[in-house]
Give the backbone structure.
Amino acid sequence: MKLIDGVSIAKIIQERIKSAIAKLQNRSPGLAFVRVGDNPASHSYIRIKKKRCEEVGIISFDIELPSHVSEAQVILEIKRLNLDPVVDGILVQLPLPEHINPFLIMQMIDPEKDVDGFNPFNMGKLLLGERDGFIPCTPHGIHVLLTQSQIPLLGKHVVIVGRSNIVGKPLAALLMQKAPHCNATVTLVHSFSEKLEEICRQADILIAAIGKPAFIKKTMVKPRAVVIDVGINHIINNQGEKQIVGDVAFDEVAPNCSYITPVPGGVGPMTISILLSNTLLSYQRKLK
């Protein structure tokens, strides 16, 4: 079993970004973070992303709105950012309060500044195989992980457990594309899928993105399969301590795999690296 070290691969990407930004002769790329409400997890995620921005030379802008803000006010703020010439990327931190429609908010972001890749315009480009849009960060990060680890996708059976708009659906669209290091045969399963365990056991590459701690057991993984764990679950372990675990029961599954990602330290760092890369790419596209 080989561990796929997302931290090391992410650092290589971030060093490339840092080097490219250091050579810029004008302003630095800018990334705006929009947070609505006071969700502690959102605070934490944005803090980590801003730290990585600072490390590579991306300027970050904070837009903090109260939880009772109207949907119309959020849209006005996004329209302002769309027109701001020093903002190259806009990230709206999810989740949003219940009275705000996240799909509508994502529609309002200029597709050319949609570095998270959630605008329907960019999602449509991904589905159609157009390469000039932005791909959602976690799916893109998984694809880079597989590529850098020299894990072949051509003709391989990839099973994705989870059908979210953030990971499962765009990842399926990405890996099946007729493009370099894609061309996989993709099956997407979910909580209502019949014979779920049997389908998972057929996977050459099994990707867990269902949001349930230790959901994937040894019996669901065929010998020598590649396992990618997207899950980030906060639990209290048997010792009464807080712990971050994935969607895969790592200790029982890992010995049976050819490759596996750890949690933390696998997919997570890649997601942030792709966000930074997309922000730089948005900046560079403006210069053309």
